Automatic annotation (TrEMBL), chain A:
<keyword id="KW-0503">Monooxygenase</keyword>
<dbReference type="InterPro" id="IPR050766">
    <property type="entry name" value="Bact_Lucif_Oxidored"/>
</dbReference>
<dbReference type="InterPro" id="IPR011251">
    <property type="entry name" value="Luciferase-like_dom"/>
</dbReference>
<dbReference type="GO" id="GO:0004497">
    <property type="term" value="F:monooxygenase activity"/>
</dbReference>
<feature type="domain" description="Luciferase-like">
    <location>
        <begin position="1"/>
        <end position="294"/>
    </location>
</feature>
<dbReference type="Pfam" id="PF00296">
    <property type="entry name" value="Bac_luciferase"/>
</dbReference>
<dbReference type="GO" id="GO:0016705">
    <property type="term" value="F:oxidoreductase activity, acting on paired donors, with incorporation or reduction of molecular oxygen"/>
</dbReference>
<dbReference type="GO" id="GO:0005829">
    <property type="term" value="C:cytosol"/>
</dbReference>
<dbReference type="InterPro" id="IPR036661">
    <property type="entry name" value="Luciferase-like_sf"/>
</dbReference>
UniProtKB/TrEMBL annotation, chain B:
<keyword id="KW-0560">Oxidoreductase</keyword>
<dbReference type="InterPro" id="IPR029039">
    <property type="entry name" value="Flavoprotein-like_sf"/>
</dbReference>
<dbReference type="Pfam" id="PF03358">
    <property type="entry name" value="FMN_red"/>
</dbReference>
<dbReference type="InterPro" id="IPR051814">
    <property type="entry name" value="NAD(P)H-dep_FMN_reductase"/>
</dbReference>
<dbReference type="GO" id="GO:0016491">
    <property type="term" value="F:oxidoreductase activity"/>
</dbReference>
<dbReference type="InterPro" id="IPR005025">
    <property type="entry name" value="FMN_Rdtase-like_dom"/>
</dbReference>
<keyword id="KW-0285">Flavoprotein</keyword>
<feature type="domain" description="NADPH-dependent FMN reductase-like">
    <location>
        <begin position="6"/>
        <end position="155"/>
    </location>
</feature>
<dbReference type="InterPro" id="IPR023932">
    <property type="entry name" value="CE1759_FMN_reduct"/>
</dbReference>
Length: 367, 204
């Protein structure tokens, strides 16, 4: 099981001090968080992609390339990469390049993006969101698997005799997750390709995500990639911890109450009850997170949102210490002991390379 | 004897509320009319006042707190809907609109709907025609021709000239019952149970 953090990359005023970090500070803070994630033993760092203020990460592979150079083990990922408004050719090139620089420690998560104006800024139309995600990803999938591609679709100029360079490291494309908050079409898409499915999980009640993940698992089996319980599932989560539960609640409440996404709406208590947000002691976070398995089955990747709503970097780093030292080791042990042998781990570059080599040997044996 | 479910949405704020009173009268009249066709109606009333905070939460954060989800499901899953609002400032109340704003866009398509409203003066009665009917037209519901407006003075009028409140209630309820009785139970397709196959998405 993989554990990690995902960041939106928002520049938000700290409601307790009124201080707003500069873009430079926020970008460096994101890097510091990634380095800390590796230091405390987490497996994954994922950054969002946004093209409007108050968000800074418009260029994920630039940031991830820099982090790759300063880490050894950490898997670098996205949350999400916009498959609708980015040119799939550029995604193929950028992430293959990153894969080489990071020695394969790269995967990515496809998302559509739900900010209306971003689509026309990139020459697209939000009403075509699903068709764009379907067509663009189909092209991306081919660009990483076929050396020379002839292609024609609805949304970009045709390609004749095009080779996307560099070719994926060791001939193994980065593993892809498809992220979705609500769309059954995206669960269907992930299932069709045998890719991973990541349920954002943090905004809506779990009943909704149970339906989405069950759909993905059922269709994964339908398309012949394995049994439903072998499908590759990732979940988002959101926590704030202090040793004493009441200290966590007291400290986090002003950040919650003023958070850009859910502030001035439900109370912290209501939101905690209805979504996976957990504010309390490390033990409470452990108990709540283990409970996700009861709803969604054995899953492969758990990402936590830790740095948002104006929380200062120092606090975030303290949170990562608690997460890495007290929470994740217990979760890792518990989840691993509960998971049946036939349920796979999240695919890594090494595992995918070994699987490809095994498939080649088998083919050679048949020939 | 067959069965149908009838959802009633009341946006009345008072306790007791004349909007709820009108809603109950319409539900009872529809039930009687359905019984005449051999149909038993189960009525489920959603009082929006009790969901006001949850509706705000849903709009602000996307999370339907409390038991709002159950209320939404009861309306979306019902065979027909009776929607009643007080008229505020020349239109439906904000609370009434909030409920329909948080529904999925397609969720009331094809559903038989009876619209009704209450107000302090009869001069606002056309709000049913210029505000409520277009709202449900947008949602592609099937709205019965008679919309029922009850001003304060209607609660004290009788007479048999076709204008009395009871007669309008019975006429509208009869229209809804006729519409409901003439169709089979319609179960909307569930995209989570029955997704569009990927080959169709790819070929679209």
């Amino acid at each position: 099981m993989q554990f990690g953090v995902f960041t939106v990359g928002d520049v938000t005023t700290d409601p307790t001090t009124g201080r707003t970090p500069s873009e430079a500070e926020r970008i460096k803070a994101m890097v510091t968080i990634a380095l800390k994630a590796e230091e405390v033993g987490l497996d994954v760092f994922a950054t969002g992609e946004h093209h409007n203020p108050p968000f800074v990460p418009s260029s994920p592979t630039t940031m991830l390339g820099y982090i790759a150079a300063r880490t050894e083990r950490l898997v670098l990922s996205t949350s999400t990469t916009l498959i609708t408004t980015n040119d799939p050719v550029k995604i193929a090139e950028d992430f293959a390049m990153l894969q080489h620089l990071a020695d394969g420690r790269v995967d990515l998560m496809m998302g559509r993006g739900n900010t209306g104006p971003v689509y026309p800024w990139f020459g697209q139309d939000i009403r075509q969101g699903i068709p764009l995600a379907v067509e663009n990803y189909h092209l991306l999938h081919r660009l990483w698997r076929e050396d020379v591609v002839d292609w024609e679709g609805k949304f970009r100029t045709p390609l004749q005799s095009f080779t996307s360079t560099p070719r994926p490291l060791d001939g193994v494309p980065p593993f892809v997750w498809h992220g979705s908050i609500r769309s059954p079409e995206i669960a269907e898409q992930a299932a069709y390709y045998g890719d991973g499915f990541f349920a954002n999980h943090i905004f809506w009640p779990k009943e909704h995500y149970v339906r989405l993940i069950n759909l993905y698992r059922r269709r994964y089996e339908h398309y012949g990639h394995g049994s439903a319980d072998q499908a590759i599932v990732g979940l988002g989560g959101q926590v704030f911890m202090r040793r004493r539960s009441q200290d966590a609640v007291r400290e986090f409440r002003p950040y919650f109450d003023n958070a850009p996404v859910y502030g001035h709406g439900p109370s912290l208590e209501e939101f905690t009850e209805q979504t996976p947000l957990t504010v309390g002691s490390p033990q409470e976070v452990i108990d709540r997170t283990l409970g996700f398995r009861d709803h969604f089955g054995d899953y492969q990747r758990q990402l936590f949102l830790m740095d948002h709503a104006g929380l200062p970097l120092k606090t975030v780093l303290e949170q990562l210490d608690l997460l890495g030292e007290e929470v994740v080791p217990v979760l890792r042990k518990e989840f691993d002991s509960l998971r049946p042998a036939h349920v796979p781990e999240a695919p890594t570059h090494a595992a995918l390379r070994a699987a490809a080599a095994a498939a080649d040997t088998e083919k050679a044996g048949e020939a | 004897m067959s069965n149908r479910t009838l959802a009633v949405v009341s946006a009345g704020l008072g306790q007791p509320s004349s909007t709820r009173l009108l809603a109950d009268r319409l539900a009872a009249a529809t039930g009687r009319s359905l019984l005449g066709q051999g149909i038993q109606a189960a009525v489920d009333v959603v009082e929006l006042r009790g969901h006001a905070h949850d509706l705000t939460n849903n709009l602000v954060s996307g999370v339907p707190t409390g038991n709002l989800r159950a209320a939404i499901d009861s309306v979306v899953d019902a065979d027909a809907l009776i929607a009643v609002t007080p008229i505020f400032t020349a239109s439906y109340s904000g609370l009434f609109k909030m409920f329909f704003d948080v529904l999925e866009p397609e969720s009331l398509a094809g559903k038989p709907v009876l619209i009704a409203a209450t107000g302090g003066t009869p001069r606002h009665s056309l709000a049913l025609e210029h505000a409520l009917r277009p709202l449900f037209a947008y949602l592609r519901s099937v709205v019965v021709p008679t919309a029922v407006y009850a001003a304060s003075e209607d609660w004290g009028t009788g007479g048999g000239d076709g204008r009395a409140l009871t007669e309008r209630i019975d006429r509208a309820a009869g229209e809804l019952a006729a519409l409901l009785g003439g169709r089979d139970r319609q179960k909307p397709s569930d995209p989570y149970e029955d997704p569009t196959p990927f080959a169709d998405l790819l070929g679209a």
